[in-house]
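Repro case for the chain-ordering regression, as requested:
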Amino acid sequence: MGPPLRVSVQFLTREQGGRVAPPGHVYATVAEFAAGPAGIWSVALKFESPPDVNGRTLAEMRLLAPQILPPPGTRFALLEGKQRVAEGLLLPLMTTWFISSAGSNIGTSSQHVVSRPLVDHLQPPHAVVS
Amino acid sequence: MAEEPFALSMGCDGVNRALWPFVRRVQRRSPLLDRLWRGIYALATGRVLFYRAVCTAEYEQLLRTRRFACLRGHVPGKYLAETRRAAEGWGEWNREVAVRLEGREEPHIVVRLSVPKADAHLMTCLGFIDGTGVAWFASLDQLEHAILEL
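-- result from build under test --
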């Protein structure tokens, strides 16, 4: 298991193809990174709090593969099978420290970090293989 | 009265039942033989074999209902492995996740299931991931006709 990574996550709405209900406190699924390691990777997230009204939250994320360490600022998508359910950003350590020490709420901090839609920068999910 | 787990091997023919303990031993030793067995099984039965590491709660639910189910807030489908060895790898990771992120010990059990070829064609192959094995994702309706061996 890889080291803990701080991430901000934004869940897609049901209309955007997201989940019906938010996940629990710990959520294990697969992710696709916009930069760095290609392909799909197993990840586990521990959320600091439930998603806010905009579907945003902060989490500690770990990858199964310890040799994979995407750099801070890397965008990623959380997938359930081929379905994209959330977008995320690996936070730099300074940003993490700033958010923690400033005590700002999750919505504001995520808004500051994620300035544009993530979905445009990610590859489409893997096609169904028959 | 507790049921005999093997009695839950719904629809499995006698030959498969007789071979299963032997196959399980071979699978632990050689992924190549594992894949060969998977191919032979698909040709002979028209069903595709998959493996999944389940926690004790899911295992008990499978014993009770004999069907896969999803709790609210959980992933609305199941991740499956092509080989027992890969399923054991992901099961070990799930155990580690439970220990490190939730602070509890959660042993995992690998279950085998077979799915009709027609349903398997609808499932999503995620490819070889995590350096562990080929993973598949199946929605619950794609597992409707799955035969579980617990």
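Ordering looks correct now. The interface with chain B takes residues 1, 19-26, 28-30, 39-42, 44, 46, 60, 62, 64-65, 67, 80-82, 126, 128-130 of chain A (CB under 8 Å).
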